[in-house]
Every structure is written in C-alpha cells, then in structure tokens.
Amino acid sequence: MQQFFSRFLALAALSFSLSQVVPGQSAGSAGTVTGTVTDSSGAAIPKAGVLLRNPVTGYRQATATDGSGAFTLRNVPPNQYHLVVTAPGFSTSDQDFAVRTSVPMNLTVPLTVAGSKTTVDVEASGAALVENTPSSHTDVDSALFSKLPTTSPGSGLNDAILFTSPSVAADSNGFFHPLGDHAQVSYSVDNQPISDQQSKLFSTQIPLNAVNSLELVTGAPNAEFGDKTSLVVNATTRSGLGAKPFGSFVAQYGSFGTVSEEATLGLGSAKFGNFIVINILRSGRFLDTPEFSPFHDVGTNGTIFDRIDYQPNARDAIHLNLFFARNWFQVPNTYDQLGQDQRQRVLTFNIAPGYQHTFNAQTLMTISPFIRRDHLNYYPSADFTQDTPATLSQERLLTNYGVKADVSYVKGIHNLKVGTQIMQTRLNESFSLGLTDPAFNAVCVDAGGNPLGLPSITLPSGCVGAGALPNPDLQIGLVPFDLTRGGSLFHFNGKKNINQFAFYIQDQLTLGNFTLNPGLRVDQYNGIVTDTGFEPRIGASYLVKRTKTVLRASYSRTFETPYNENLILSSSTGIGGLASNGVGGTSENPIQPGRRNQYNTGVQQGIGKYLQVDADYFWKYTNNAYDFDTLFSTPLTFPISWKKSKIDGVGIRVSTTEIHGFQVFTTMGHTRARYFGPEVGGVIFNAAIDNSVFRIDHDQAFQQTTILRYQRPNHGPWMNFTWRYDSGLVAGSVPDIATALSFTGAQQLAIGLRCGSQSPTLTTPITNCAGNAITSRLRIPPAGTENDDTNPARVAPRHLFDVAVGTDNLLHGEHARVTLRFTVVNLTNSESLYNFLSTFSGTHFVEPRSYQAAVGMSF
Q1: Residue 854 φ then ψ, to 5°
Q2: Across the chain, how many H-helices and E-strands are there?
Q3: 741-750 per-position pLDDT tens digit
Q4: Taking a C-beta distance cutoff of 8 angstroms, is the pair 369, 353 a contact?
Q5: Where are the alpha helices (DSSP H) in 793-832?
Q6: Which residue from 719, 721, 717, 720 is spatially nearest to 818, judged by alpha carbons?
Q7: Which residues contact residue 497 at a Cβ distance below 8 angstroms, ignoring those fewer than 6 apart?
Q8: What is the pLDDT averaged over residues 510-526?
Q9: Residue 586 above 70 pLDDT?
Q10: Where residue 123 falls among pLDDT bands split at 50, 70, 90?
Q11: pLDDT tens-digit map of 806-840
Q12: Strand, coil or helix: 579
C-alpha cells in the first residue's frame, strides 16, 4: 500500500511540469462544464445568463459570465443536459450534450445580435430526453427525492433508491431487493467505493440531505465497479465551492413520538468550499415491527457529514468527506416476547479525501483514499431468562480502508478510463447464543408432534425410554447450547483480514449514432478463501435521431464477493449452518466468491417534448449466489451462499418533463428469482431450507411506484402524491394451512388467520379447522397445489398511498424563506406484511398510517 501511494505521489509531482493551464474541475465523480460566451466578432460578453438543466430529473444550475465572458458550472452529475445562454440584445443560444466524465468540458458559445440567425444549432425539441448509453440507469435529482416521504427512520437514502429505481422490491427496515438479489449494491460516494451494507442494521448511511444527485445503474455495470453489481448507486454530494452562503434548518414532529432536526450550511469562494450537515432523530418506531402495533421500538440516529473543497489553482482539486454517525435502538418484540429487552448500537466514521489533477484538456487523474469503520454492539436483556427463544449478544467491527485511483482521457471518439482499486477490510467478530425456550428445539415430541420439555434428555435415543418419540425436526447442532437442557452459551471469536486488488480499463466510443462500451476488470480476492475474477464487459447502443429511440444491449461478467458482516462465523458452519453442524469439524465449508453472467437488452424512447419511456430486460446466472440468514426477528444476520441462482425480469420507467408545474414519475418491475441448493453457512434458519430449486423471497411478480408532484412557481406551494403497489414477496415458511395451524396465537393474528367466524387470540391459537381457513395477509396455495418453484406461498398484495403538501417560501421572502411541510404515510392504514418468519428477513409489518409535520427556514 505504501509503495502504491509513493508511485502516485511521484506521478502527481511530475504532472505539474507537464500540465497546461485549464479550468478547475469538480471533485469526486461529478463533471465540470466551463465555457466562454462571445459575440460574432469574438469579443467576450460579460454578465450573460447561463442555465444548465435536465428536463426529466429537474436538475438546474445557473450562473453568469464574468468580465472575460467565462463561466464555470461545477459538481455536475453524469447525465444528459440542455444549456441555455442569454444576453440582452442577443439571440438565445441553446444546445444539448452529455456529461459522462470528470474531465472538464470546455465550450465556446457565440451569440448573434437579436434578429439574425443563431450560430448554434437548437436541439431542444426532445433530444435531451434520451441518453445514448448502453446501460439502463435512473438519474434522480434532489428536486425529486427531497419531497419524497420517509418511510424508514435513518434510511432516507435507501428510501429514495426504492421509490425511484425500477425492479427494486421493498423489504423491511429500509432494505430492498435489487433486480432479484438481496443487498447486492455498490455505492460510489464522490468516487469512494462502498460495497458493505449501507443500512441502519449494519451501518449508518450518508444522510439524504447531503446528496446532490443519484445515478442508479440497474443495467450493465462499467468495469470500474465490482464486488456487488446488481445495483450501482453513484452519489454526488453537495458542495459549497464557489457558492454564496446557503443553508437550511428543519424541525419535524410526527407519529410514534418521532422528533427530528436537520441543519445544513454551505459557503465558499473560487478556491474554497465547505458544506456541512447535522441531523438528529428519535422515533418510537425506528425499525419495522413484527406486530402491526409497535412496542419496544425506540431508536435514535445522529449524523454529521462535512465536505471540504479546495482548489489551489486551475489544475488541482482537493476534497475531503468526513462522516460520523450513531444508531441506537431497541429490538422490537412480538407478543410472545413481552419481557425481552434486546438492543443494538452502531457507531460509524468515514474519512475520504480525494485529489484530482488535470494534465491537459483531455486527461485527468483522480486519487481517492478512504477509511471507514462500523462498530456494532448487540446487547441481550439484563435478565437473560426474559430472552426468547434465545439470548444473544454480539460485538462486531468492520474496518475498510484503501484507495481507488484512475486516469481519464477524453479525445475524439474515446472516453477512456484506466484505474485500480486496492483495499483491506478488517473483520473482528464476537458472538454468543444460548437457547432459552425448551420447545424451540425439543429433543422429543409426543404422538401428535408437540414438543416435550424433558430437560434431562439430550439425545434422541433417550426419548423412547421416556414414552416419547424423537423429534424429526431436531437441529442437532444446537443441543449443546440449549440452556434449558444443561447446555452452555455458544461463544465465537474470530478475526480476519480481507485483501482485495482490482485493475480495470473501460472506454466509451462514440461512432456517429453508435455508442460502444468495452471494458475489462480483474479482481484478486484474498480472505478466508483466495480467488481471482477475470471480467470482460461489453455494451452497445444506437440512437435513431428521427424517432428519438435508443436501442441497447450488453453482456457483463462479474466477480461477486461475499458479504463481510459475520462472514467469519458463517464460513465456519458448513452446509446447514450452526444448527446442523456446530462450528468447525469435517463440515467446514467457507463461503466462496461467486461468478455471474449477466445479459441486458433494452430501449429508451422519447415521445414529443414531454415523455420518456425506458424498458430493460435482464437475465443473470450466478454460481455461488448470496443471501442472509436472519436470526429470528432480530437485526442479526449471517451471510449464506447457494449453489447457483437464475434471475430474470423486466424494469420499466416512465418519466415526464415538468408540464406547467406537474411531473409524473413511474417505475415498474417484474422479477423471477430461482435459487438452487445446497446452501452453505448461517446459524439458525427460521424455516426449512430447500436444497432443490425454489423461489427465494426476492421474487415478486410485479411492483410499481408512481410519483405525482406539482410545484409552481419554483419556490412556491407544492404537492407530492405517491402510490406504491407490491404483488407480494415469497413467504416460504407457510406452505399450507396445516403449518399455519401450528403457530402461536400471536403469529396467527399476524397473518390474519381465520377459520370461518373463529379467530385466534394471543393466548388461544386455532389448532384445527374443519371449515375454510383463510389468511388475509398471506396468499397460501390450495391444498396439494403448493410448489416451491412454480406456486409458492406469498405475502398478500398491498397498495400504499402517501401524500405530502408544503411550501418552500411561506412568507414570500427574497433571501430567507420559511418552509412548511405535512406528510401522511400509508394514508389508508393498510395492515400489510413485508415478510413473515422469513429465513432471510424475519417478520415485519409495513408502517401503519403516520403523520409528519415539519417547519424550517432556508436561505
């Protein structure tokens, strides 16, 4: 690592003698657009108005030329743009172009005297609606996601991704399933790669009000992205560079005692900028609960994000991202765990400096070192006998540090990037478990299959002598840790370093109306196992200008790396997990990296000036496919892998431009997710694991989100209406009514079980039903028709409606503006489940109807 830094610092020093003077660039992954506005004689035009905008995302950035006619637009997210330049006495000039690199783009914009012909072709009649790129992606600006409701406290970023990206299915606690996978997401935050879980259960994610824009890549990933590639989130944060002082303060109060305060402040000069965010939140429903009515669910979240920019000259740019955060929360209980008091705390810090040097107008070098740590503590109840069915504790540290460095070169038909990524992830795991419920893993059962206590019997062979039968579902690996049968706590401690190196090269060739994206990535993975991935990637697109149609297709070979959270323990338990094997011994089978072949084909269509339609079909075949084993309904999860998976589906996005203040944004998706056993790793599974083909709980026939928003004028009153529909994830733990009849009364109430007019109570479950038993929150196939692959049980479909109204300038102030907002989440109070007793997610209800009121000030 030291040798690597030395080489790049030497290269940076050499660059000063080779460079030409060029305009300063944006830090991170964003682009810079500079230019000069002149008249027909070539003379500079000062104070000309320059507006850069994207008509679909709503992104806008405005400036004016200086005395020499020059302008600079910094921190421009990758996207297609429309540039408009105006000056008194001159005709308006406008043009379309794409920002697809961090290499600064320099334009010359000549204006003609009003009344004569303009010298720049006008292509504003819908051309900017389509992007001639081979990969499907969604561009989301803060103008859209800042008005979206928050459905999961402390997970604003994940909520924004879920609401705006097609083929992303909702899961509990701010999780989502991207294109049939679970949490296979890579984040790039100002060029810092993060492939570990960015969720409040594992870490603390960057606050949404620190984000300027998001590019959500659901198609073929470029070669610079690795590890987890079902969804790539390219985030550009807000900056104070070159800005007059701006900021905001918002105070919010809502249902479940939710209180929050959010403050931002940005300011800068031509060389310096600082933007800081400080957020705090407390909620009585911090996590999604296993019962519709939340209890024992208080949580707090606090974050500080600071971005510092410094440009000492026109060739160099330095930025520093600082992030510190804390989550603390109670673990929600069920009615079967009323005395339990388990809790979790997560502390996170992230330090990510970055350096960019422009060699000349075509070449830019970027060096992005980083260090990030998540420190998690999970605490059992003070009285462990109140914990059921098990008492649990954990302390886990994940420290990730390294550097990503590349050189970008743009000239002629080429947009080339060559780079490397070197990092180490240090894992430190400490975990304890002890069973406290004698019925959870009973050694013996009676003739009816009911569990028997019999605390002195620890082997099935002893059941017959006690007039009982051996339990056919006994998990033999857990018997030594059954505290009700004289067992002791299971303790695990492990440390391991995961060393990774990657090299990548990619190009975007523009050949007339064709765009070609060839790329190659090589990954070296050295952790619990050692492996190397060789990953060719190729994509092509073609623009039919006359019809504003983009046709595209791509192939990607990717090297998928295991989840790092609890990886050491899960790599020690083998096929069937701890419950089958214990730890170590002959069954030990570490979790291996996976290899995936992915195919995408799609079309993007601009319709008139106002509508864009994008559709993409994906097919993914993976050897060693990943998921999590969730421990009961706790936030503790353990990575597992399957022999292979076959996933295919369709994602569709329909977007309008702003039409007299109105804008509509719709995403739709359909995913088939078929997994094949055997499974490796894990601890205890909530339901039986199928070693043949089955539909995993990421599989959903259809989901859609429609966002209707209105605001006019720019800072005036606004309205946001959201309609979310989910047809229901797979619920494999309840294959038939007979299984539902074996549940506790609380569990039967959770799934809405009824037998004719009979309903269960908390203390009296329904144990048999001679009539027609139904479950209102699950869709269980009729007797004899259930099939884990072709006809599994599912969560019942749900429609969720959210409404928000507000104003960005209540008192019509010119400088300081008073803001007001009122939001209703789950307007119809739908009592719906995300999942139930899922091996991979546990049990969680969708948030009941809730209200949020916020008042603030911005300037």
Answers
A1: -135, 140
A2: 7, 46
A3: 999 999 999 9
A4: yes
A5: none
A6: 717
A7: 424, 425, 426, 427, 527
A8: 96
A9: no
A10: very low
A11: 999 999 888 899 999 999 999 999 999 999 999 88
A12: helix
The one-letter amino acid code at 519 reads: G
Backbone CA torsion sign across 569, 573, 578, 583: negative
- Going across the sheet that includes 70-76, the strands are 70-76, 31-38, 105-110
In this prediction, residue 539 has a pLDDT band, given cuts at 50, 70 and 90, of very high
DSSP run (H or E) holding 9: helix 2-18
Cβ 504 vs Cβ 559: under 8 Å: no
Could you read off the pLDDT of 700-741 as tens digits, one per residue? 999 999 999 999 877 889 999 999 999 999 998 999 999 999
The string of pLDDT tens digits covering residues 227-276 is 999 999 999 999 999 899 999 999 999 999 999 999 999 999 989 999 99
Whole-angstrom distance, CA of residue 781 vs CA of residue 13: 68
User: Residue 591 and residue 570: Cα distance in Å, rounded?
Assistant: 7
Q: Please determine, for residue 77, whether its predicted confidence score (pLDDT) is greater than 70.
A: yes
Token output for 424: 């180490």
Residue-level length of the chain: 859
Q: 329, 355, 364: which is closest to 22 by C-alpha?
A: 364
| Rounded distance between C-alpha atoms, residue 420 and residue 407, angstroms | 10
Q: Which residue has the tokens 């460095």?
A: 405
Q: Which two tokens stand for residue 172?
A: 């509990």
Output the 3-class SS for 279-305.
EEEEECCCCCCCCCCCCCCCEEEEEEE
pTM above 0.85, yes or no: yes
The identity of residue 214, as a single letter, is L
* CA 115 – CA 40 distance, rounded (Å): 13
Check: CB of residue 619 under 8 Å from CB of residue 590.
no
Alpha helices in 527-591 (DSSP H): 567-570, 578-581
pLDDT of residue 781: 93
Nearest residue to 36 (alpha-carbon basis) of 141, 89, 142, 108: 108
SS3 assignment for 673-717: EEEEEEEEECCCCCCCCCCCCEECCCCEEEEEEEEEEEECCCCCE
| Burial of 113 per CB tally in 10 Å (0-12, 13-18, 19+) | exposed
343 neighbors 328 (Cβ within 8 angstroms): yes
In angstroms, the CA 245 to CA 587 distance is 62
**Whether the bond into 369 is cis, omega within 30 of 0:** no
DSSP 76-99: EPSEEEEEEEE-TTB--EEEEEEE
The span from the CA of 126 to the CA of 118, in Å, is 19
Q: What is the rounded CA–CA span in Å between residue 380 and residue 382?
A: 6
Q: Which residues make beta-bridge pairs with 214? A: 140, 235
The residue-averaged pLDDT of 39-46 equals 88
Q: Tokens 């600064």 appear where?
A: 104
Q: Which two tokens stand for residue 399?
A: 């420290």
With cut-offs at 50, 70 and 90, classify the pLDDT of residue 28. low
Q: Is the peptide bond before 207 cis (omega within 30 degrees of 0)?
A: no
483 near 437, Cβ under 8 Å? no
Q: Is the peptide bond before 353 cis (omega within 30 degrees of 0)?
A: no
Taking the C-alpha atoms of residue 167 and residue 699, their distance in angstroms, rounded to an integer, is 10
Contacts of 756 (CB under 8 A, 6+ apart): 769, 771, 772
As a whole number of angstroms, the distance between CA 500 and CA 774 comes to 51
CA–CA distance, 781 with 793 (Å, rounded to integer):
6
- In the sheet that holds 451-452, the strands lie side by side as 451-452, 444-445, 469-470
The pair of structure tokens assigned to 251 is 């105070």
For the record, the structure tokens of 684 come out as 């205890």
- Distance in Å from the first CA to the final CA of the chain: 44
Q: Are 262 and 250 in contact (CB under 8 A)?
A: yes
d(C-alpha 471, C-alpha 508), whole Å? 61
Comparing CA positions, the residue from 145, 151, 170 lying closest to residue 825 is 151
